[in-house]
Amino acid sequence: MKMSKQTLLKQTGTAFLNEVEVPVAAYKVADGDSLYGLWIKFRSQTTVGAIMTVNKLTTSELQPGKSLKIPLVL
């Protein structure tokens, strides 16, 4: 089984996650990106739930070009 290559993000700011200030990185959504795909790419640093919470997402659909905050919680 081939493992996807992980990408490490660098902190660009902070945001609140469940009333706790956490470091975040900026990420611009590309065509074809999904929450699951972002988790695979950044799984050593974040979770799908953390991404959804910090960005106040109510669905898993992402819009290309939108900027997301990726919480660096792991």
UniProtKB/TrEMBL annotation:
Question: Which Pfam family, just one, is annotated for this protein?
Answer: LysM
The protein's matches in SUPFAM superfamilies, at most eight in alphabetical order, are given as: LysM domain
Quote the InterPro entries the UniProt record gives: LysM, LysM_dom_sf
Q: What residues does the LysM domain cover? A: 25-70
Q: What is this protein called?
A: LysM domain-containing protein
Q: What is the species listed in this Swiss-Prot or TrEMBL entry?
A: Secundilactobacillus kimchicus JCM 15530
